[in-house]
Design a protein that fits this description.
Layout: H1 7-20, E1 24-29, H2 41-54, H3 64-73, H4 81-91, E2 96-101, H5 110-124, E3 134-137, H6 176-190, H7 196-207, H8 211-222, H9 232-244, H10 249-260, H11 262-274, H12 285-292, E4 296-299, E5 302-305, H13 308-321, H14 326-334, E6 339-340, E7 343-344, H15 346-361, H16 366-385, E8 389-393, E9 402-409, E10 412-420, H17 424-441, E11 445-451, E12 460-466, E13 469-475
Length: about 475
């Protein structure tokens, strides 16, 4: 599972359940272990015995002989596979389960893969000699994908522990009604009143139930110092707080992975900026990585970013990389003129963007504008609303020809459709679609940005009335 998905919490709860059934559960973690612990196979085995000794006070259902055995083996200076085999045969006189958390810390080391190979051999020979009943590994990389972190020339030097590994298929996301139930309990405990179903729906819309984000949003709203309300606006403000947090572990984790895997960043850019629809093929290397890291999900056999918060975070990260672009500077320099009576003057934003885009990219070819136009609008928009508003892209309507952006700015929403011009008939259909989309948001005014390659086009901003809705369109 991805970072901060509740893996450690799950292990803790599972440990209590198994101990109640008389299992011996050793729950250790590789977090904060020094490189020296993995320098050789012997040093890793010695570290393993030392971790067992460290966990003796909190491990239940042990008998005296098992305690003595650990104290004996921890004194061996350079243990080997024979020592490990003798230890497990003598120690596992009753059902023993081993939990190892933060396995990613060890996955770059050949010694750890050798240890997994030893565990595999003992498991395959379990009818002849007792061994651990189960070994549970918790990490971002699943065991079958540890191979992605191993140099090819080392592949032949160890057994393949992943061919006996079982997947962990439990749903760890919180369902919308589960979030509502927790909020209902919170209301009763703290004697506050709000619509828990409405708030749960908004939290789920942003997080898709990702536990870390759900709990963080609730924590931020509940903090009286933040002066936030339990409503849609409060959730949106909490999202902004998380995104602004210095050294946010989630943002740092995303940034590192995008740096480590440039092809993964390219895949996500294709989805976000170009609206490329891709089939979900888990065998494809970077689809597998993106899925394992929690970046994407399978939505009816199509790749989709896992949740709205991730989308916004990724858009922000990618736009930050491109903020040297002149359109970003234009937006930052002109932002003050776009706020009137506390709200965005969206027609003026479209007018100014149209002018700047034509000045900079008016002579570029059609293919460039198709691929870059939407990104350029977001580059211009980001500094204008930064720190006050949020935006997200409607995943269900995003494709190569159309992108719907929803802006939340001081509790007011603005819906903008970005699209490639494909003739009057297509444009008319787009206007009808936007009008219907405005009904969903209970809005009377919407906006369109059309990138048009017809040389007889009339650029500029104009208004269209359709079904009682005012549509303001910028033709570029």
């Amino acid at each position: 599972r991805g970072r901060q998905y509740g893996k450690t919490t799950t292990l803790s709860l599972l440990k209590k359940k198994l101990e109640a059934e008389e299992f011996v559960v050793f729950s250790i973690s590789f977090e904060r272990l020094e490189d020296e612990c993995f320098a050789s196979y012997s040093s890793l085995l010695k570290t393993l015995f030392e971790l067992f000794l460290l966990k003796l006070p909190t491990t239940k259902n042990l008998d005296e002989s098992q305690v003595n055995l650990i104290q004996k083996y921890v004194k061996i200076e350079k243990p080997n596979n024979v020592d490990l085999s003798y230890f497990t045969q003598s120690f596992c006189i009753k059902p023993v389960v081993l939990f190892i958390d933060e396995v990613d810390q060890a996955s770059n080391y050949k010694s750890f893969i050798t240890l997994l190979g030893a565990f595999r051999d003992m498991y395959l020979n379990r009818d002849e000699a007792p061994t651990f009943q189960s070994i549970v590994l918790a990490s971002v990389f699943d065991i079958k994908n540890l191979r992605l972190k191993i140099r090819p020339e080392e592949m032949h030097t160890f057994n393949s522990p992943w061919n006996i590994a079982l997947p962990f298929n439990a749903e760890m996301e919180l369902p919308e009604d589960g979030i509502a139930n927790m909020l209902s309990e919170y209301k009763a405990d703290y004697n506050v009143d709000f619509d828990e179903k409405l708030v749960a729906k908004e939290i789920f819309n942003w997080t898709s139930g990702y536990p870390y984000l759900v709990s963080n949003i609730c924590r931020i709203i509940a903090d009286p110092d933040n002066k936030l309300s339990w409503d849609k606006y409060g959730v949106e403000e909490a999202v902004k707080v998380i995104l602004r947090e210095p050294n946010c572990p989630l943002v740092e984790s995303f940034t590192k992975k995008l740096s480590d895997y440039p092809e993964l960043a390219k895949l996500l850019r294709e989805i976000l900026f170009n609206g490329t629809r891709m089939g979900f093929v888990i065998q494809e290397k970077y689809t597998k990585l993106a899925y394992m890291f929690g970046f994407i999900k399978d939505n009816n056999s199509q790749l989709q970013i896992s949740n709205r918060f991730y989308e916004l975070m990724l858009y922000n990260l990618f736009i930050e990389e491109d903020k040297h672009n002149s359109l970003y500077s234009n937006g930052a320099n002109e932002k003050n003129q776009f706020v009137k009576d506390g709200y965005l003057d969206m027609p003026l934003i479209l007018k100014k963007f149209s002018q700047h885009f034509n000045d900079v990219y008016g002579t570029d070819d059609e293919k460039f504008i198709e691929n870059q136009g939407r990104k350029m609008f977001l580059l211009y928009l980001r500094p204008i609303i930064n720190g006050i508003g949020n935006y997200y892209v409607e995943a269900e309507t995003r494709d190569h020809t159309r992108t719907d952006i929803v802006i939340d700015y001081k509790a007011k929403q603005y819906v903008i459709e970005l699209k490639i011009w494909h003739g009057e008939e297509y444009n008319r259909k787009g206007e009808i679609q936007l009008s219907e989309y405005l009904d969903y948001f209970h809005l009377d005014e919407g906006y369109m940005v059309s990138f048009c390659f017809n040389k007889s086009k009339v650029p500029g901003v104009h208004e269209v009335m359709l079904g009682g809705k005012k549509l303001i369109e910028a033709v570029i």
